[in-house]
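re: that complex we talked abt at group meeting.

here r the seqs, copy pasted straight from the sheet so there may be weird spacing, ignore it
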Amino acid sequence: MFEFNIFAQDFLNISTVIPSTLALALLILLISIALGGVLAFIEQKRVFVLWKVSQLFRSFLRGTPLLVQLYLAFYCLPVVLQKAALLAYLPFNQNDFNPVYTVIVAYSVHFAVFQSEIIRGSFLSVGYGQIEAAQASGFSFFQTMRRIIIPQAIIEALPNFFNSYLSVIKSLSLAFLVGVVDILAKAKLESALNFRYLESYAAAATAYWLLCSIMTYILGIYEKLIRKRA
Amino acid sequence: MLALKNIRKSFNGTDVLKGISLKVNEGDVVTLIGPSGTGKTTLLRCVNFLEKPDEGEVQFSNFQLNYSHAKKKEILRLRRKSAMVFQQYHLFKNKTAIENVMEAQIVVQKKTKKEAYENSLELLNKVGLVEKKDYYPSQLSGGQQQRISIARALAIKPEILLFDEPTSALDPELVGEVLNVIDQIARTGATILLVTHEMSFAQSISTKVVFMDHGEIVEEGPPSQIFNHSNRLRTKEFLKHFTNNYQKTTSL
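got the structure back, here u go
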């Protein structure tokens, strides 16, 4: 039956990869927000041609599973980089390529599409009236952005970014398929040693759950602070 | 002071302004009245370029500008010498009342925080809202928000104040407090261009009333002429319905 000792041991072992999982997810989140910002700008301003390209890109990323994108990246990225390196006479061996980079690229691009929607929505939520009020007072475009729009848009976007952080953490459980060890991967490795699958998966579930609960709690405090103003 | 010449504007093929020319002298309070959809607000928004006129010229304070090929710098210059009060107030929601008043002084006029703060306190006092200085817009009533937005407009010491139906979004109880503030400002000799549906207020405050219909000026003149001795059928017809609902009170 369920051996609590093994569960506890598994949980401790899994905890060792939590910091690296969180850091990897944070890196992916930040890159995806930056990419998402670019996408949002392109789509909002309808930048010539790029706008159409980004729509195609968006439709593909939305229409295929993350796992498929991860596999595509896993088999494409090293080869593409190898070719690029050859052209630029740079030393590069695709066999030494760490799959963690593949994960960062694939996930950042995948989540960028969602971030761009969050960013667009949060900018639109500020409302045109305040922008006009700033313009009428003689604010330049950048002054309006910096002083009025961005501070409000960030407040609006933060909870959503937070939610996507949780999504990234949970989605990283797929990364083991290309060899990157996160929480779930660690659980699999643990159970492979003693064949106690239930305990190790229970431990992984507990770790995810705890993490997400703590973060949701922090988000709750943040939202309370914000609501005082609004 | 402000002279608009032949302003034209159309939206999707509909002519909203059909070549309007209008003069506002220093210290004048000019009121634009007329039925809804006539282009009064559009004309006001054309003055500071929130709406880009298709053609027309403006002469304002000491410079001239052709709307059809105005440069960014010129637009900014024009906007920095004028201020606008909106129907929906449009206060900066992430800033407190006093920060709203300080903002343009700091960002645009590069005043120090201290200077802007003291100046803003004085203005809040003028609109009777010093005790609300640390409130966010969402914590204030519509009338209070509009008074803050008037203080914000005054803060940049504009050469002309543009009011876009400042009381249309307020319930009748709150209209009075805002009109009183505007009346008070007008008495200080400020130059004002005002769009309003408050006819008796327009009658009492204006030095000149402009009646617009279908994108054109039908008639302009001193309030006594427009309201009592108009010889235009359209003006008479429009003013037939107005009721006397503005009473001046001395206290805010």
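couple things i noticed - Residues 13 and 186 of chain A are 8 Å apart (CA to CA). Residues 1-17+184-230 of chain A form one domain.
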